Amino acid sequence: MPIVVQKYGGSSVADAESIKRVARRIIDTRKEGNDVVVAVSAMGDTTDELLDLAREVSPMPPPRELDMLMTAGERISMALLAMAIADQGHSVRSFTGSQAGVITDAQHGRAKIIDVTPGRITEALGKGHIVIVAGFQGVSKETKEITTLGRGGSDTTAVALAAALRASVCEIYTDVDGVFTADPRIVPAARKLDRITAEEMLELAASGSKVLHLRSVEYARRFDIPIHVRSSFTSKEGTLVTDQPAPEGEAVEAPIIAGVATDRSEAKVTVVGVPDRSGMAAQIFAAIADAEINLDMIVQNVSATETGLTDISFTVPISEGPAAMQALSKIQDEVGFASLLYDDQIGTLSLVGAGMKSNPGVSATFFKALAAADINVEMISTSEIRISVVMRDDRLDEAVRAVHTAFGLDSDQEAVVYAGTGR
Amino acid sequence: MPIVVQKYGGSSVADAESIKRVARRIIDTRKEGNDVVVAVSAMGDTTDELLDLAREVSPMPPPRELDMLMTAGERISMALLAMAIADQGHSVRSFTGSQAGVITDAQHGRAKIIDVTPGRITEALGKGHIVIVAGFQGVSKETKEITTLGRGGSDTTAVALAAALRASVCEIYTDVDGVFTADPRIVPAARKLDRITAEEMLELAASGSKVLHLRSVEYARRFDIPIHVRSSFTSKEGTLVTDQPAPEGEAVEAPIIAGVATDRSEAKVTVVGVPDRSGMAAQIFAAIADAEINLDMIVQNVSATETGLTDISFTVPISEGPAAMQALSKIQDEVGFASLLYDDQIGTLSLVGAGMKSNPGVSATFFKALAAADINVEMISTSEIRISVVMRDDRLDEAVRAVHTAFGLDSDQEAVVYAGTGR
């Protein structure tokens, strides 16, 4: 029997009625002739409520105890979901992350899955049970401690289970219909994608798209697990994230552009007046790395040769901005740069599409559209299938709409850009 | 270092402030030079809230999933308590029942502890940590499923840990000052006992005293663990429950009477007109046992020889009354009794005291006091150290006060009945 892994987020199981609705959907999947394994998040606001309780007790709770606390959330939702399924006459077993064999490293609060040993799940499926698994949590290999995967970790749990169980598909249920060419709240004309490659989805997730958690897409890509992103409120097909070729009869050529992502969560740090000698940049980035801060875009301006000085700019998550400034201040004398600038009023726009590789006209169209909308581009970074630009954040929405239209992505337009049109 | 096991109930950890207060008390015990292991219940109303959620989802949730759900409650309280202790600068580890090695049978919702393997606790104590353990829960030996011990099970967890760790004492913190000679809400003159034997405490708990859970007293008695029942709101000494002799200098003779317990939770079932032949009673009690109903008191009236018929009365918990009536109705034709009577307007009064064994005057004083208060006794049952009587429930309070006074238990009286006074 094919195995389908499903994941339901907190908003899909926010109350008893929602839980019953999700239970019916799970049972429907079972009735269609599948073994069903479900990863579930904590109900609605449970995670935030537990965090509030923790803060009332201690401003800096030990990470081990915080993980112990947070994992109570999925324990509640998974047990209730199992009860709702049993109430509709189907046999079911719920398992914690530890029971499900989700083995992680020992980094509390942001553990990485290092193995999945789903013996109890396989046994339960063999006995005809539907299986519910607590998302977001696991147990550390060395210390046997309860761990959490960090926010969005339930997506990763689902994909990891799908890989370990050799599932035919991993369905991620959410409150939107699938992956869109842009955020529909910013671009009302955004279209739902039927298919997208894992590589493209990875770039979109890294560029600010919130639909799927970056780590889950990486995991799915590595194990070649198709992800079906769909709404838990309708039965419509959503978006299939896969590098596998489309079946015969579907679109013969993939579109050049998959979508436009936006990100307002980063700040720009500029190190001004860095002596233009080898090793200076290395010292700066070593300081950032030692502070465990994630860098995103990096730009080094052309050196003004007469001064022998250069400026280095990079983006970091706003939440890590203060730590970055502190780390750099400490090495100011040593490196000998002039000053630091901090700017959190920036927005990043990223154009993502596998078809870019073979279509040199994409960059020209992109920058022409931005210029026509009078957008001042402050930083540029590219990958093989992505162009990202930094601008003032109050210009971001306008820029996205301009780019979306320029590439013919608007849903009320006939002209969809396909590879080979030479645009 | 001596090990002290403490247990805090739900009302002691109802909110962040209470949790911090309990944390300070635990740290004080640690500072006095003890290794401290704490069993904690779920916060305040958490257990009831989780039960409500379960009922919203399913009227008859599977016991396995209900246990999975309920155990989230202690996971939350134990993690928060550990955080509060860490916040005050002490190293601490929390463990679930399963992690703490609380091994049970597989009866979900009312599992029995069959072994405690506290390897992780001992290791944590060895590293200087304070240890917090989730009360009320364990893991089944055969099936490795999460189980709960039933209501009041946290007391049993604490005592079982104390036994396994060879603790010097098991302190049960509650919202009263200790064990009283009677329920102070009924008898304002009730006195707190400094000491009581485990045998007496067992009879009091079985007779309706709510201070300690019956199973925890049985467990403590079997392993000879002293229980110190005390208030989490004061630092006063409470009541020591132990069969060990009092140290030199304390009361040389134990009082005859430990206390008077009351119980309104039972109903009386009377099987009327049972043929007075051997085997009839056996059939009746077999039917009750098959329905897994707990009988308490049983009385068979003297047979009316001219009719060859007899009446059999017994008490059952009110919650099991309907099931008892149903089980008996099914065998009416077979046994040939005339009818069934059901009465839930009864109250039970029990006088408990180890000194009764050697003091024949106790019964006389007891029934004289009831007669003087004009109480009509409907059923009588006795053990070596207990006399119980059933009466109308609206007379119970008056009866308790009369008996309490008759045995000189009132706290404003000088005359305390000691063994050897011949009363």
Short description:
Chain A is α/β, with parallel strands linked by helices and 423 residues long.
What does this structure look like?
Two copies of one chain form a homodimer. Chain A is α/β, with parallel strands linked by helices and 423 residues long. Chain A contains twelve helices and 20 strands. In chain A, the strands form four sheets. Chain A has an eight-stranded mixed β-sheet, with helices on both faces. Chain A is globular, with a radius of gyration of 23 Å. The two termini of chain A are 46 Å apart.
Strand order of the largest sheet of chain A: 3-6-2-1-9-11-12-10
Spans of chain A of 5+ residues with little confidence (pLDDT < 50)? 413-423
Largest interface pair: A-B, 37 and 37 residues
What is the 3D shape of chain A? globular
DSSP summary, beta strand count of chain A: 20
Q: Residue share in helices of chain A?
A: 25-40%
Provide the residue-averaged pLDDT of chain A: 91
Q: What amount of the residues of chain A lies in strands? A: 15-25%
Largest sheet entry of chain A: 8 strands, mixed
Q: CATH fold name of the largest domain in chain A, please?
A: VC0802-like
Quickly count the domains of chain A. 2
CATH class of the largest domain in chain A: Alpha Beta
Q: Any idea what the CATH superfamily of the largest domain in chain A is called?
A: VC0802-like
CATH architecture classification name of the largest domain in chain A: 2-Layer Sandwich
* SS field, number of helical segments of chain A: 12
Instruction: Give the oligomeric state of the chains in this entry, treating copies of one chain as homo and distinct chains as hetero.
Output: homodimer
